[in-house]
Amino acid sequence: MSLPCDTGSVELATYRRYISEKLKVGERLDQRGMSDVRLPKVSRNVGATLTGSTGSKGGDSLLSSVLYTDDYGTSIISDVHAVFGPPHTQTPDEGRFNVSVTAPFLKDNGGFASAGNQSNTAITNGLADYPLRQTEGYVRSVLESCLDLHQLCVYVNEACWVLTVNLTLLNVDGTLRASALHAAVAALYNLTLPRAQLPNGDVVEQRSLRFSCVPVACTFGLLSREPLSFLVDTTAIEEMVCEGVITVAVDEAGGLVDFYQLCSCPLPPQVLLSFPEAAYRLSGGIRERLLVD
Question: Taking the model in full, what pTM does it have?
Answer without folding.
Answer: 0.88
